[in-house]
Amino acid sequence: MSKILVVDDDPAVLKLVQRALRQQDHEVWVASNGKEGLEKAQSLHPALIICDWMMPYIDGLEVCRRIKADPQLSTTFFILLTAKIGLEDRIEGLNTGADDFLSKPIEIAELQARVRAGLRLHQVSQDLQTQKALLEAELAEAASYVSALLPPPLQGEITIESRFIPSRQLGGDCFDYFWLDPDQLVLYLLDVSGHGLAAALPSILVLNLLRSRSLPNVCFDQPAVVLAALNEAFQMSHQNEKYFTIWYGVYRPSQRQLTYASAGHPPAVLLASTGSHQLRTAALPVGMLPEADFTSAQCIVPESGTLYIYSDGIYELNPSAQTAWGLKDWLQLLTQSDGSLSLDQLLQQVQTANASHSFNDDVSLLKIQFGGTSSEFL
């Protein structure tokens, strides 16, 4: 039994339609005007509404418009009952949101057939909504799992805070930091091409491989070696055409030495009293070519230096705009901040500069602050 609402200011029409639909064992409710019809629709949530077009106060088009604008009623199948049969009238009705039309005077057989067809389509819409809700719940659960994998803030002589903002529920960015031993801290951030689940799965796999140190015959304190091993294991021809960029570094507090390598990734930025320094090595993204070469570089981290590692979503907000925000603007913002702004303040300034409340791509951002004695940048 389906719940149907009939809205018409003609009592004879209401009785006719009500009797015909009850013969099909439907639960039929009636309303004598548009205002009453909207009130009953909001309380009853019918599967189908048959509404007269021409009514005083609130006509059928306005009723349809409000029904379709209500998230709780938007899947309700809406039939406009009308004596208007012109093409322009039907186009207007369809543009308003009507799903079907029924002409006056009413033919009972046609009425019953259109109602049966409308209820079938409504059931399909309901099934799709149910599947969508289940999928969203599963994606939310997966997103919670991914968030749980990311490391908590690091406190102590070295402090690390992070932000992860996927463009969808799941994203292709991933990062981690952990101690190989008491004097070697691994820091990395990677960005898998694409978005959503297809990008999230490889990033999680890489994180688990690096965290568990499961790459065979690899010294994880040698960034170029790690990237070469990842490139061998994740060729895009075997990974559904997915590749990823990565910045990988190892910091040794006893020497204040940072060894790093990158593959197609934006430069990390080291801020210190000596100025702003971009840390990057030239290489293709991981997975693009089997014979790709990777090299490492080193620097000495100055006293109270601050290192930023990030994904390109932080500066690729409006790529089609004439005055698009770019890497140069982001680097300038970091330099001007001099490490004094929190990550939330930095993100807010980026969004303000772009008049945007959301990012188009996944955004990951790490801020590493180093303590210790003074040294010189090499």
UniProtKB/TrEMBL annotation:
<feature type="domain" description="Response regulatory">
    <location>
        <begin position="3"/>
        <end position="119"/>
    </location>
</feature>
<feature type="modified residue" description="4-aspartylphosphate">
    <location>
        <position position="52"/>
    </location>
</feature>
<dbReference type="Pfam" id="PF07228">
    <property type="entry name" value="SpoIIE"/>
</dbReference>
<keyword id="KW-0378">Hydrolase</keyword>
<dbReference type="InterPro" id="IPR001932">
    <property type="entry name" value="PPM-type_phosphatase-like_dom"/>
</dbReference>
<dbReference type="InterPro" id="IPR001789">
    <property type="entry name" value="Sig_transdc_resp-reg_receiver"/>
</dbReference>
<dbReference type="InterPro" id="IPR011006">
    <property type="entry name" value="CheY-like_superfamily"/>
</dbReference>
<dbReference type="InterPro" id="IPR052016">
    <property type="entry name" value="Bact_Sigma-Reg"/>
</dbReference>
<dbReference type="InterPro" id="IPR036457">
    <property type="entry name" value="PPM-type-like_dom_sf"/>
</dbReference>
<dbReference type="Pfam" id="PF00072">
    <property type="entry name" value="Response_reg"/>
</dbReference>
<keyword id="KW-0597">Phosphoprotein</keyword>
<dbReference type="GO" id="GO:0016791">
    <property type="term" value="F:phosphatase activity"/>
</dbReference>
<protein>
    <submittedName>
        <fullName>SpoIIE family protein phosphatase</fullName>
    </submittedName>
</protein>
<dbReference type="GO" id="GO:0000160">
    <property type="term" value="P:phosphorelay signal transduction system"/>
</dbReference>
